[in-house]
């Protein structure tokens, strides 16, 4: 009861040191002989509760040891923090595990919770798609290595881990197929090669994980795999190299592996004078930085080069720096920014890939 002292802990099983000859193994069903023998089915039989004058027999002390030993052994294990793993004998004897039953993982890394009434599947060995078990809690990392161009379906123990790391030299696009669980993961894509890795369910949609990403968070909604990064928002960009270091708002939206950046009216504030020949912007959030250089997205009119309007092209490098190059100018140098004078970045909207 609340507030009551903790009962004495059972440290070892009853009759732990007794000779085996003094500890009977209690059968599940009542034996035919001896008549006084105990069983899990009947307990101590009626004849042991009948007066001796009426033909009753005394219970066997070895049966007392035989029943108290497994009971206290289980209690001692629970006291020591041990959980029960899947047991096929138990599942068969009881018509499977009950809905909501909790079992320890065989690798000792966590616990499963049962989602199906009467479940006789082994959660550690049955395919996650059909086992009826889901991870309740788990600790550790699953390392998926040797990726090339073949899809990989995670086993239940692999998918149970909260962190998934990916490695290999890609020669084609690869899918990492997750179970349809409602669960969160952190994925690190350490692969190389000019191809993509998508975390996806067998029949749902998924998310491309950028190479070199640090702990990209994804979530399973029971059908699909989704990115937990913000799907839209904005950030403040700063003009690098301008005398006044002007700022403006850049908006973004995320669709799968595609990022769209666009600007509003206040982006006209990104202007000023400078002696630098390169116009760049900084402030791109780290999770929007592509794995490799992305350039030549769009010809944008509206930049200013030494006071004259120009066409520009935009690019983003793996450090997240947005650069604008001059395609043509009027009154300035053709193909390059003038080394001095008034400059401004144009309003823009373009889409690029994270990989």
Structure write-up:
The chain has 355 residues and is mostly beta strands. Helix content is 10%, strand content 34%. About 2% of the residues have low confidence.
Ordered list of secondary-structure elements with their pairings:
Blueprint: H1 61-79, H2 88-93, E1 102-104, E2 110-114, H3 128-131, E3 133-138, E4 141-144, E5 152-153, H4 156-160, E6 163-166, E7 174-178, E8 182-189, E9 197-201, E10 206-208, E11 216-221, E12 225-227, E13 232-240, E14 247-255, E15 258-263, E16 271-273, E17 279-282, E18 294-305, E19 308-316, E20 322-329, E21 342-344, E22 349-353
Parallel strand pairs: 4-6, 5-7, 6-8, 7-9
Antiparallel strand pairs: 1-2, 2-3, 8-11, 9-10, 11-12, 13-14, 13-17, 14-15, 15-22, 16-21, 17-20, 18-19, 18-21, 19-20
Strands of the widest sheet, in order across it, are 16-21-18-19-20-17-13-14-15-22
Unreliable stretches covering 5 or more consecutive residues: 329-334
Number of strands: 22
* CATH topology value of the largest domain: Adenovirus Type 5 Fiber Protein (Receptor Binding Domain)
Indicate the overall shape.
Answer: rod-shaped
| Proportion of residues in helical segments | under 10%
Q: Assign the CATH architecture of the largest domain.
A: Sandwich
What is the ordering of alpha helices and beta strands? HHEEHEEEHEEEEEEEEEEEEEEEEE
Q: Averaged pLDDT, please? A: 87
Question: Structural class per helix/strand content?
Answer: mainly beta
Main sheet record: 10 strands, antiparallel
């Amino acid at each position: 009861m609340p507030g009551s002292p903790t009962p004495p802990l059972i440290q070892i099983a009853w009759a732990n040191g007794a000779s085996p000859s003094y500890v009977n193994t209690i059968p599940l069903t009542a034996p035919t002989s001896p008549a006084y023998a105990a069983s899990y089915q009947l307990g101590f039989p009626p004849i042991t509760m009948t007066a001796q004058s009426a033909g009753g027999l005394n219970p066997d002390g070895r049966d007392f040891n035989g029943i108290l030993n497994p009971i206290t052994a289980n209690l001692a294990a629970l006291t020591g923090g041990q959980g029960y793993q899947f047991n096929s004998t138990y599942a068969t004897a009881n018509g499977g595990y009950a809905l909501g039953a909790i079992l320890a993982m065989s690798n000792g890394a966590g616990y499963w919770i049962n989602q199906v009434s009467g479940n006789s599947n082994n959660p550690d060995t049955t395919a996650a798609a059909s086992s009826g078990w889901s991870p309740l809690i788990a600790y550790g990392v699953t390392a998926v290595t040797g990726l090339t161009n073949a899809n990989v379906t995670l086993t239940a123990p692999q998918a149970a881990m909260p962190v998934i790391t990916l490695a290999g030299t890609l020669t084609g696009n690869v899918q990492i197929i997750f179970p349809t669980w409602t669960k969160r993961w952190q994925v690190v894509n350490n692969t190389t090669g000019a191809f993509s890795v998508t975390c996806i369910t067998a029949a749902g949609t998924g998310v491309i994980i950028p190479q070199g990403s640090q702990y990209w968070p994804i979530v399973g909604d029971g059908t699909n795999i989704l990115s937990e990064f913000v799907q839209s928002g904005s950030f403040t960009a700063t003009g690098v190299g301008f005398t006044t270091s002007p700022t403006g708002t850049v908006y973004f939206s995320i669709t799968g592996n595609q990022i769209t950046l666009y600007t509003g009216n206040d982006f006209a504030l990104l202007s000023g004078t400078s002696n630098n020949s390169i116009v760049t912007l900084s402030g791109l959030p780290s999770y929007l930085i592509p794995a490799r250089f992305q350039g030549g997205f769009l010809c944008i009119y509206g930049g200013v080069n030494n006071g004259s309007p120009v066409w520009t092209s935009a690019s983003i490098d793996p450090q997240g720096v947005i650069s604008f190059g001059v395609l043509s100018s009027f009154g300035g140098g053709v193909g390059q920014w003038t080394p001095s004078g008034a400059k401004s970045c144009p309003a823009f909207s373009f889409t690029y890939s994270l990989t």
